Amino acid sequence: MSATKIGCLVPLNNDFKEDTSLSNLPLSPGLNVIGRNNISVSDKRLSRKHLTLTAAADGSANLLVEGTNPVVVKSGDQRKKLKSNEHVSIFDGDIIELIPGHHFFKYVTSLSRKRPPSFNGGTDNEESITLNFPAVAVQGLPGWANTCSVSIGDVIQGDVLVAILSNYMVDIDWLMPACPALAKVPHVLVIHGEGDGTLEHMKRRKRANWILHKPPLPISFGTHHSKAMLLVYPRGVRIIVHTANLIHVDWNNKSQGLWMQDFPWKDQSTLRPGCGFENDLVDYLSALKWPEFNANLPGLGNFKINPSFFKKFDYSSATVRLIASVPGYHTGPNLKKWGHMKLRTVLQECTFDKEFQKSPLIYQFSSLGSLDEKWMAELSSSMSSDVRCSLEGYAGGSAIPSPQKNVEKGFLKKLLPRYNGQKLAWFLLTSSNLSKAAWGALQKNNSQLMIRSYELGVLFLPSMKRHGCGFSCTNNGDPSKDQRGLIKNPEVQKTNLVTLTWQGSHRNTDESSEVISLPVPYELPPQRYSSEDVPWSWDRRYTKKDVYGQVWPRQVQL
């Protein structure tokens, strides 16, 4: 264990008072093994590796049951029994029963979770832009790597009146304790892509005021893969588009992208027509076909919560364009409405600097479909050694579900660069993996676009400005904190999109230019694969041990 201590497990007696006859168990950042070897109690029901606590430097921890006997975690007035291989997030003050009803320990952290700067509430517009596109906090990374990062509790906060959560995978047992603010939301709609078994569990576990909805999938092998949130507040609406499933590992152990922006209610006396962002949003929401429901919003009135409801907000300050996919055979005016044809249409409306002529397209994704050379020109992917040295070791590669037959095509191998940027013509953050099902495939002499899945992304363009990022739904109604319309230099003529690795020495000193940093975690251009680099695939055998001493496929010891 590291010499740095972030907290301890405090033994309790049956009255939940501290048991001074036993010693506290110190906890270090990272993996902590709790079991018979370090607990001074005689009970053969305790395994030598009874459970593990993976503690982060911010004080949060993930508890995983390693032994055969169940463990109970008591958080507030909720008590949850965990079986072998089940996990849960725990927080300061939670009580662990190593055996149900026996051997009580309180989780005490010496650190309190530090919340990132208030979203859209600051006075520095450069910071506001960064917080429009923060990273998701990853446990086990050093503090600098989680700068301006957020947890799901940082995103869903404040006086939320209606929450619409759209995702592919939803672990309802993790979601509710990970985001306690949801318990106070009067109306929650969960739009998901789960199968029948998980859906039945969700129905049993959900709160009475939660509505579950799986959008129609008219074409085989399609999924509801979009990852987004719409949060309605007394002051406006918060729109979030991200890449994480609503499960523990995606919000704690994997690097994820997330964009969010708050928008005010429209001035009903001077209703302005819808902008491109509004039209794209309402069109996409309409395709989901969720069951309309009524909501009484205090001080605002009674509303039918349907796609048209979201026309009541002013999106004129949006800093992105929406790029969505919905399943179907799209023809006529709908041909350019979805998938890669929508992206093409928006980009054709833009003018880019000459420096980007013949610049490469760089793709980052976690799943690679079966592609052909005509459909795909250049792409990028994670290589096996990068997976091996990631926070989760080879296990992290199970979220990169590409078999050898897809990643080892000759035309792909010569194009695969290593995970390794600075200046961007444009940037798209999307739930779409690299597949025809997600992006669509042109058919019938390019007159029809066939898409199988629901996807959602946001497109950053040089035309986006810092103004419009200052309005907040959660600044307690203080109008002085709203920075809408404020730009650092009103004479700005040019916007540069850059990655985090862009160095100050490269800055353009022209005061008519502004720089917007996007948290892209690698350098441009990426390094090409060498003859020794092997693309990661989940069905390949890897004998070189990862950071946890594991090979792949993982060998289970009985």
Short note summarizing the structure:
The protein is an alpha+beta fold and 558 residues long.
Characterise the protein shown here:
The longest helix has 13 residues, at 276-288. It contains eleven helices and 27 strands. Mean pLDDT is 78; it is low at 112-131, 377-402, 411-421, 477-492 and 504-509. 13% of the residues lie in helices and 24% in strands. With 558 residues, it is α+β, with helices and mostly antiparallel strands. The strands form seven sheets. A six-stranded antiparallel sheet has the order 2-1-10-9-6-7, with no helix packed on it. Among the domains are: 7-109, Tumour Suppressor Smad4 (Sandwich); 125-319, Endonuclease, Chain A (2-Layer Sandwich). The relative contact order is 0.11.
